């Protein structure tokens, strides 16, 4: 296990579950284990100057009381959405990127939580598949927690892959900033499992992305998984403007396309830095040493988020889109959390409705 844990808390009602037994068996003896009546209490009550950072080192094994399957939290009628569905199997992430929206989203519930009753998610997925037999859905586990960071501890991914391979209209997306792919290399994805990486230039990685794998290591991991029969995708999100950014993103894409055949890439999503006023304040307080984050000159947009100045945003998007088209004219790419008008100005065509775009991304 590459990530530090200070302590593990286990709800009494889940201590005999298969996942709980598996995690406790794989933990090192140096990590203390405590048993509690209600995991929600220890997930929320953290003290100290930075409870969010402390929460990343407190693992709570607990029952999930809410549905596992939900719409993407970024979905909104004002954006050109992609129809992405989220499977919530864990909450919080052991890495600590300065721009991460979880700093606000999980501010009042910061402990790292793993839900031991995850098999119940399969019932929800089964109903979705059965009641929509003619639709295809892209479903990811990497929205509120990295999909692979703790899989050597939990071993959940093999169970997920086995389930999704039995359902032709469900596409699993495992999203990560790690190179933790050993578990995946032991499996046969039959060309139907998607693994995606957030990619940033080295300057953004060094300034903003603490605890993550090097961008080159993420690209190398993607190349190895392509050879093993996986589909791969990439998220250039957030794209951050800074002096030299245009050249850095150009070099990043060159490195990607040198290592991974564009024909083997399912899609690339693009999104620039955006922060609510509260998230911006939290991030700048927690990461005052991040020159790229602190040095930005974003403006408050009509949607209530700070974003790069609109003409600069368009220029960045267009430069990256043109490079993607040059690599392969049919390589699917889209904009995340941007208006349909902005997406059309960048991509040059009308954006499909969420259901249609979701169908495309689930089947490429």
Give me a quick take on this structure.
This protein is α/β, with parallel strands linked by helices and 364 residues long. It has 16 helices and 17 strands.
Description:
- This protein has 364 residues and is an alpha/beta fold.
- The protein has a single domain (63-363), classed as pyruvate-formate lyase- activating enzyme.
- The chain is 38% helix and 20% strand.
- The protein is built from 16 helices and 17 strands.
- The strands form 4 sheets. The chain has an 8-stranded mixed beta sheet. The protein has a 5-stranded mixed beta sheet with strand order 2-1-3-8-6.
- Helix 11 (245-259) packs parallel to helix 14.
- The radius of gyration is 20 Å and the shape is globular.
- The model has no long low-confidence stretch (mean pLDDT 94).
Under the CATH scheme, which architecture would be assigned?
Answer: Alpha-Beta Horseshoe
- CATH topology, what is it called? pyruvate-formate lyase- activating enzyme
The low-confidence parts are: none
Overall spatial form? globular
> Structural class per helix/strand content?
alpha/beta
**Mean pLDDT metric:** 94
Number of alpha- plus pi-helical segments: 16
> Over the alpha carbons, how many angstroms does the gyration radius reach?
20 Å
Count of domain modules: 1
CATH class: Alpha Beta
Main β-sheet, spatial strand arrangement: 4-5-9-10-11-13-14-17
Distance between the termini: 33 Å
Percent of sequence in beta strands: 15-25%
Number of strand segments: 17
